[in-house]
Amino acid sequence: MCGFFVSNNPRVGEHHLEVIKNRVNFRGPDGESGLIEHAGWKLYHARLAIIAPNPKYNQPYLDKNGSMLVFNGEILNFKTLAAKYNIQENDSDTHVLSLLLNKKGFDLNELEGFFAFVRVNSDGQLTHCARDRFGVKPLNYHCVDKKFYTISSEASVISDIFSLPYNQESIEEYKIFRAPIFQGSFFKGINAVKPGSCLISGRYFDSLSYVTSDYLNQNNLILKTHEAIKQSITSRMIADVPVGLLYSGGIDSNLINDICQDDLVKFTGGFEGDYDVMHAKKNEKLSNIIEVSNQDFIERFDKMIKLRKEPLSVPNEVILSFLAGEWSKRGGKVLLSGEAADELFAGYDRIYKWAFQKQKFDTKEFLEYYAYSKFEEISQDILDKTNEFFEKLDGLSPFEKTRQFFIKIHLPVLFRRLDFSLMYAGVEGREPLASSMMFKIAMQANPKFLFHKNVGKFPLREIISKTQGEDFAFAEKVGFPVDLSKIFRNSKSNSRYTNYDIWRKENLRRISL
User: Hey, how many other C-beta atoms are within 10 angstroms of the C-beta on 182?
Assistant: First the structure.
């Protein structure tokens, strides 16, 4: 896990180094490169050393062919790929990735892990600017005259250097969805590389191509899901530094904890009386509990927005930063988390159950379930963009249309939350349930096998019921409720819309909007 900045724009120079450091260095506290010049490009890298923490693999990484690579994330199957392609030196995923990208026609879909990387060859040609399948790692870019590219892990640094203002359309999307889900970033002129694609060669992965009606039977679904979780956890444990777990009262983190063969150090956080905190307190030896006061929350909230230069999506981002900070103090650099189970296995009970029962998809009804504002507050422009997304999915069932939205649109937002929250404290987040293996199995699940006792995620619930019991396994989803009126107004919220409105206003006020 790292942060980087790359540009061939002639306006970018050494005088921007402090700006770059201020916006990127929190992502890589183990060392920074300075601004390196290479074939007409300037590259910067801040490293969080997790695999092969040897200075010889520091970045920007120059390979034997004269190509330079900057890379954020982990290639978890790098040793397997090294053996397949006869790469002898295989103790670093950075080194292996660099050599793989030299191979003509190498398919990025062979990479297992979570990543964003940029590669410039010896002639100054931008050969790769690629992002992982589900958008776990951020990758932002700004292009001038179709030839001058500036690319970074953080959009804020690009905005600072080129004085790019906030995009009002993005702000409007934030008010409705808590993120600019269609605009790509909060800033004018800054876009995000789409998950599963390369800016140069195009899309290499599309979740749509895995939609099928050739379903697994229920027993095989449960068995294959269980095995996939085991293998996914094992792959996410690959590190030369300590790995811990974000532990809540939900089934996903408990599933990881129960199946993982290592005794993970666990962290639970929230406000006094929160469900997760109360759950962890039932066995205080099981997890390190961090209770956050209202004042501490507000102070950290302010610092996070100032660093990110963007509004946050959910209050839990602030809580997670405290857990990551505690793990970092103890020398930890990686935390596992349960993201993606809800999106892949129909864990959002209300909206997925609605979609499963519908014969014909209705965008208005979908938005009434998904949006964080009342339908009448949604602009025609946002409604048109939402309709446009779903119109491209003609032929799919309402259930699969909904799942494609969660995979293509919602998941990258979710991963951005986790990425920034943990990286704020210099810790990498890893999501075992977001592996390509888990995705493929979820797509082979008959939707009717995902629901049981009025809740979704049946295969995962069935697996954990063997260790935690059915009452826990089939309890309804709690979520992460935070009474924001109590924190910011010293009173209680009278509705969820009041809560969302307070959150929006407090965020936008802090970026002077």
Answer: 17
What's 271's DSSP letter? S
Instruction: With beta carbons less than 8 A apart as the criterion, state whether 52 and 240 touch.
Output: yes
CA 206 to chain CA centroid, Å, is: 17
Is 468 exposed, middle or buried (CB count within 10 Å of its CB: 0-12, 13-18, 19+)? middle
pLDDT one-digit tens code per residue, 399-428: 999 999 999 999 999 999 999 999 999 999
The model's pLDDT over 118-147, given as tens digits with 9 standing for 90+, comes to: 999 999 999 999 999 999 999 999 999 999
pLDDT in tens, 78-128: 999 999 999 999 989 999 999 999 998 899 999 999 999 999 999 999 999
With the CA atoms of 8, 12, 18 and 20 taken in that order, what torsion angle do they form, in degrees rounded to the nearest 10? -40
Residue 434 pLDDT grade (very low, low, confident, very high; cuts 50, 70, 90) = very high
Phi-psi region at 453: left, alpha or beta (left = phi > 0; alpha = psi -120 to 50): left
Domains in the chain, CATH or no CATH each:
2-205 (3.60.20.10), 209-343+411-446+453-482 (3.40.50.620)
Q: What share of the chain is helix, strand, coil (3-state, %, to 5)?
A: 45, 15, 40
Taking alpha carbons only, the member of 312, 239, 307 closest to residue 74 is: 239
